[in-house]
Amino acid sequence: NAGVTQTPKFQVLKTGQSMTLQCAQDMNHEYMSWYRQDPGMGLRLIHYSVGAGITDQGEVPNGYNVSRSTTEDFPLRLLSAAPSQTSVYFCASSYSAGTGGSPLHFGNGTRLTVT
Amino acid sequence: SQELEQSPQSLIVQEGKNLTINCTSSKTLYGLYWYKQKYGEGLIFLMMLQKGGEEKSHEKITAKLDEKKQQSSLHITASQPSHAGIYLCGADGSGNTGKLIFGQGTTLQVKP
Fold first, then answer.
1. For A102, which DSSP code?
2. Alpha carbon of A61 to those of A29, A34, A66: distances in Å?
3. Backbone φ and ψ of B42, nearest 5°
4. Who contacts A56 (Cβ-Cβ below 8 Å, separation ≥6)?
5. Which of B31, B50, B101 is opposite residue A45, by nearest beta carbon?
6. Are the CB atoms for B7 and B105 separated by under 8 Å?
7. Is the bond preceding A75 in cis, omega lying within 30 degrees of 0?
8. Residue B2 needs a FRET pair 20 to 30 A away by CA distance; which of A58, B25, B58, B78 works?
9. Nearest-by-Cβ selection for B30 from A99, A105, A108
10. Nearest residue of A to residue B41 by CA position?
């Protein structure tokens, strides 16, 4: 059982470049989300989805796009990378949203550097 | 918007000592998650607390939820080097919105 798989593990971009961070889960989870982790700031929610075809913004959505065409996949797109987007990105999923449901399962992260 | 504040931000303890990490919410807590993260890795789920007064334990780690105080605590008994890492609390302020937020984390070092 692979769980939550993120690719790539490491990425270096130049300012202005675009890229997509991939996230896939094989647990048939309805809820998926993206976080970024920066030193001293914990995890900040970027975007989340409560099911295929449904997405919503989190705390820090600017500069990022998402889509959820299938239950399994939830890619995160950086349209024009900026140095401020240098961070570690985590994808997470759970059976359902909210504290009435199951806990989040996290991927191992993607470490992104924008120069 | 809801915020979660963890204290302390970092902690260094001698092996065998007990320690407590606190997580305080700016709004009513409908439930709370505790996670642990080792450097360079993803987050590992520890415990979920859903009701005021609830207390859960796993091995030497105990977590409690005090809804009135909008606070949760994580207590480690007889700490070991394997307990070292970053501990994060997370919550959904509205109970079922999907917007799970996290505290800034507490870094724990355990000296042998």
1. P
2. 22, 10, 10
3. -80, 180
4. A47, A48, A49, A50, B98, B99
5. B101
6. no
7. no
8. B58
9. A99
10. A108
Residue A99 has pLDDT above 60, yes or no: no
Structure tokens at A7: 């690719």
Say how many C-beta atoms besides its own lie within 10 A of residue A41's C-beta.
Answer: 14
pLDDT mean values, one per 10 residues, chain B (112 residues): 90 97 88 88 89 89 89 96 95 68 94 94
Provide the token pair at A91.
């994808």
Structure confidence at residue A1 as a pLDDT band (50, 70, 90): low
Q: Is the peptide bond before A8 cis (omega within 30 degrees of 0)?
A: yes
8 Å CB contact of B48 and A98 = no
pLDDT value at position B95? 58
Q: Are strands A110-114 and A10-13 parallel, antiparallel or unpaired?
A: parallel
Neighbouring C-beta atoms of residue A59, cutoff 10 Å:
14
Which residues, listed in sequence order, are joined to residue A111 by a DSSP beta bridge? A10, A88
Region A33-52: mean pLDDT is 91
pLDDT 10s digits, A11-21: 999 999 999 99
Contact indicator for A103, A94 with CB cutoff of 8 Å: yes
Find the residue in A nearest to B33 (Cα).
Answer: A103
